[in-house]
Automatic annotation (TrEMBL), chain A:
Location of the Aminotransferase class V domain: 59-419
This protein's name: cysteine desulfurase
A Pfam family hit: Aminotran_5
The entry's keywords: Iron, Iron-sulfur, Metal-binding, Pyridoxal phosphate, Transferase
Origin species: Amphimedon queenslandica
EC number: 2.8.1.7
Gene Ontology terms describing biological process: [2Fe-2S] cluster assembly
Broad class of enzyme this protein falls into: transferase
Region Disordered, annotated ranges: 31-57
UniProtKB/TrEMBL annotation, chain B:
GO (cellular component) term, any one: mitochondrion
InterPro entries: Complex1_LYR_dom (IPR008011), Complex1_LYR_LYRM4 (IPR045297), ISC_assembly_LYR (IPR051522)
UniProt record similarity statement: Belongs to the complex I LYR family.
Gene Ontology BP term (one): iron-sulfur cluster assembly
PANTHER family with a match to the protein in the record: LYR MOTIF-CONTAINING PROTEIN 4, PROTEIN C6ORF149
Pfam families cross-referenced by the UniProt entry: Complex1_LYR
Start and end residues of each Complex 1 LYR protein domain: 6-63
Source species of the chain: Amphimedon queenslandica
Coiled coil segments of this chain: none
Name of the protein in question: Complex 1 LYR protein domain-containing protein
Length: 456, 85
């Protein structure tokens, strides 16, 4: 009997929060409508019409994407407007000028990661780079080796590529991470077999911002003759990455995470010792046969320019972002209790602040804070209400995984935006907690862990 | 030929004035902040060759900002103020 009562209570709590959501949505609609009618009724205030429009939310989702840097657009525009040649046309000036631009961009990317330009292959983005690296290496060496190591907190495209290879008959080890989100190096060493061809471990996690010990992992891989791939989409241009010092064999780069355009990325492929991959796209043999298809020179110019700007601005950005990050964390935790930062307190990229607000449902908080563009995890999974698999992998409790918000600070974030976010966040969390039956129970001193919510 | 302090100051003011004209709040505040911090950082420069190089960079940046300000006004959202503005 007690079980059913508890069950009823849970359903009540659930419906309450759902109703709250609907209610807030309706309210938002109503105010928007009344504003509109006011404007149409009052024609004498036509000049003020524009100021009645709701302001745009501020952007605090730097891990999903970033606005393009104006310097990047400035580099791209001539190629969108005047220089339209196919970079692979060898017979006329249109082709030559485009090719020159592509090769300049290749050098800009290479300079940022400390590689040779010939080791950089342009792709459509980090997802393609990850697919190409994992499937490409696995397939090329499949006659001798059939084992791949990765971690549970990788990006979906790495996990899905591995899943795909598992269906093809490969063996994959999904390494767990410690509660701070970092892998255990001993565990990694133990997972290596003679048949291991590739290890794929991301540099900076997209959800919790944790930095893996890439140099150490690279060392272990080199010793054991395992190719080392890292998804550095979230790291490039933000933290120093050098493929030689870190002994990286393959590395994925994304354009729009470095304030460049979307739809372009790159894959670094080491030449010495040589890493061979089986191409996924067949065709004209562009990019040394590894990625056929006309190189989109406008986007590539944007990526190159973004890398150059990033190299120039890295120290300035880093200092600023760490200051803003500190301000945000301190502002929120000094005014709210039961806020947990997910990930490692030290080995984390400052621009990614993942906080769990206990006893508040993350999605309701996102709705309540509609003036701030935020996300509860990766953009790819933001449509579903499932808690993040990354947070579950670091061992966060189901309820805390449900109440997490990711604050992404970027180059263009200002102090005013951080202060606005802090005050909004504090007031909304307080409001939501006041409505929450769970919060009430906690205030009464009931240990929520002692309650069994589900019957199975 | 190195730029005179007066020319440098003129360029600084021009850069700030132009940066102020960005339609987008974030670009605007970034441009102003970056120009100020850049000049602050290079304040101690005495080598004429270095000053001349930085001056040329400033002139190029000014042209870039002017172009991008123009673009920002062409495609800015109709009356899109940001919440913190």
């Amino acid at each position: 009997m007690a079980a059913t009562a508890r069950h009823e209570m849970k359903r009540f709590a659930f419906s309450l929060s759902r109703n709250g959501l609907l209610w807030r949505r309706a309210l938002h609609h109503q105010t928007a409508n009344s504003q509109q009618t006011q404007v149409t009724e009052d024609k004498s205030t036509q000049t003020e019409k524009k100021t009645d429009v709701e302001p745009r939310p501020l952007y605090l989702d730097a891990q999903a994407t970033n606005p393009m840097d104006p310097r990047v657009l400035d580099a791209m525009l001539p190629y969108l407007v005047s220089y339209y040649g196919n970079p692979h046309s060898r017979t006329h000036a249109y082709g030559w000028e485009s090719e020159e631009a592509v090769e300049k961009a290749r050098k800009q990317v290479a300079d940022l990661i400390g590689s040779d330009p010939r080791e950089v292959v342009f792709t459509s983005g980090a997802t393609e780079s990850n697919n190409m690296a994992i499937k490409g290496v696995a397939n090329f060496y499949r006659s001798k080796k059939n084992h791949i190591i990765t971690t549970q907190t990788e990006h979906k495209c790495v996990l899905d590529s591995c899943r795909f290879l598992e269906n093809e008959g490969f063996e994959v080890t999904y390494l767990p991470v410690k509660s701070n989100g970092i892998i255990d190096l001993q565990e990694f060493k133990d997972a290596i077999r003679p048949s291991t061809s590739l290890a794929s471990i991301m540099t900076v996690n997209n959800e919790i911002g944790v930095k893996q010990p890439i140099a150490e992992i690279g060392e272990i891989c080199r010793e054991n003759k395992v190719f080392f791939h890292t998804d550095a989409a979230q790291a490039i241009g933000k933290i120093p990455v050098n493929v030689n010092n870190m002994k990286i064999d393959l590395m994925s780069i994304s354009g729009h995470k470095v304030y460049g355009p979307k739809g372009v990325g790159a894959l670094y492929i080491r030449r010495r010792p040589r890493v061979r991959i089986e191409p996924m796209i067949s065709g004209g043999g562009q990019e040394r046969g590894m990625r056929s298809g006309t190189v989109p020179h406008t986007l590539v110019v944007g990526l190159g320019s973004a890398c150059e700007v990033a190299q120039q601005e890295m120290e300035y950005d880093r200092e600023r972002i760490s200051r803003l990050s500190e301000r945000l964390i301190h502002g929120i935790t000094s005014q709210l209790d039961h806020v947990i930062r997910n990930g490692d307190p030290v080995e984390t990229y400052d621009g990614c602040v993942n906080l769990s607000f206990a006893y508040v449902e993350g999605e309701s908080l996102l709705m309540a804070m509609k003036q701030v563009a935020l996300s509860s995890g990766s953009a790819c999974t933001s449509a579903s209400l499932e808690p993040s698999y990354v947070l579950r992998a670091v061992g966060a409790d189901e309820d805390l995984a449900h109440s997490s918000i990711r604050f992404g600070i970027g180059r263009f974030t200002t102090e005013e935006e951080i202060d606005f976010t802090i005050s909004k966040c504090v007031s909304e969390v307080t409001k939501l907690r006041q409505m929450s039956p769970l919060w009430e129970m906690v205030q009464e001193g009931i240990d929520l862990k002692s309650i069994q919510w589900t019957q199975h | 030929m190195a730029a005179t302090p007066r020319q440098v100051l003129g360029l600084y003011k021009q850069l700030l004035r132009e940066g102020e004209r960005f339609a987008n709040y974030n670009y605007r505040s970034y441009a102003i902040r970056r120009v100020k911090d850049y000049f602050k950082d290079k304040r101690g420069l005495t080598d004429p060759a270095a000053i001349s190089k930085e001056y040329q960079y400033g002139v190029k940046s000014l042209a870039l900002i002017q172009r991008q300000v123009a673009v920002s006004h062409m495609y800015s959202h109709a009356n899109a103020k940001q919440v913190v503005e």
